[in-house]
């Protein structure tokens, strides 16, 4: 049955991680592909596969997969994934345009974004507005604009007080500032 492939894929993707070690995504990908062979429209497995493909360094294929999921579901998570990929690629103008688009789209901004923090083994559903502002923080931090980045983090926590990634980033910024 497909639930077994889902479970094995998720376990090897999310939990079979040694902190600080480089991992091999092939085992998780094996289980994902087995599950997708049975149920090619399984969104859960398609999401994991896109992340594993990205982890293997194929951002072009991962982008196409996230784009297909966004187009078919309109879930804010997939638009956030697409936007994050533009940030990661260094395509800041495109990322900022996508963030503005999200912030002005009531269907996106009223939803949530699911974020996975594999090393910490935490999955969180974040208010979309906070998630997209977090991308603005990442852009500002990369430009060494620490104060502007910190302002975005503060807004993130005001919008979603339990936003793990934002709270962790604030803590890291505080350590960074203390070490200067």
How far apart the termini lie comes to 55 Å
The assigned structural class equals mainly alpha
Helix count from the secondary structure assignment: 10
According to DSSP, the number of beta strands is 2
Q: Explain this structure to me?
A:
The protein is mainly alpha-helical and 180 residues long. Helix content is 71%, strand content 7%. The protein contains ten helices and two strands. Strands 1-2 form a two-stranded antiparallel sheet.
SSE topology:
Layout: H1 2-15, H2 26-38, H3 43-55, H4 59-73, H5 76-88, H6 92-103, H7 106-109, E1 112-117, E2 122-127, H8 128-142, H9 146-159, H10 164-178
Antiparallel strand pairs: 1-2
Helix pairs in contact: 1-2, 1-3, 2-3, 3-4, 4-5, 5-6, 5-8, 6-8, 8-9, 9-10
Quick structural overview:
This protein has 180 residues and is mainly alpha-helical. Helix content is 71%, strand content 7%. It is globular.
Question: Can you tag this structure with a few keywords?
Answer:
71% helix; mainly alpha; 180 residues; 2 strands; single chain; globular; two-stranded antiparallel ribbon; 10 helices
């Amino acid at each position: 049955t497909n639930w077994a492939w889902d479970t094995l894929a998720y376990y090897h993707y999310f939990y079979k991680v040694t902190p600080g070690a480089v991992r091999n995504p092939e085992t998780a990908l094996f289980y994902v592909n087995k599950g997708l062979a049975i149920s090619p429209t399984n969104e859960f497995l398609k999401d994991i596969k896109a992340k594993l493909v990205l982890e293997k360094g194929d951002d072009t294929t991962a982008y196409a997969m996230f784009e297909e999921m966004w187009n078919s579901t309109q879930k804010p998570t997939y638009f956030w994934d697409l936007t994050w990929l533009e940030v990661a690629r260094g395509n800041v103008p495109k990322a900022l345009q996508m963030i503005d688009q999200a912030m002005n789209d009531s269907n996106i901004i009223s939803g949530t974004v699911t974020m996975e923090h594999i090393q910490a083994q935490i999955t969180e559903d974040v208010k979309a507005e906070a998630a997209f502002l977090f991308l603005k923080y990442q852009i500002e931090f990369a430009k060494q604009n620490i104060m502007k980045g910190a302002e975005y983090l503060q807004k993130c926590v005001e919008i979603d007080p339990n936003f793990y990634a934002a709270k962790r980033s604030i803590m890291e910024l505080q350590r960074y500032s203390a070490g200067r």
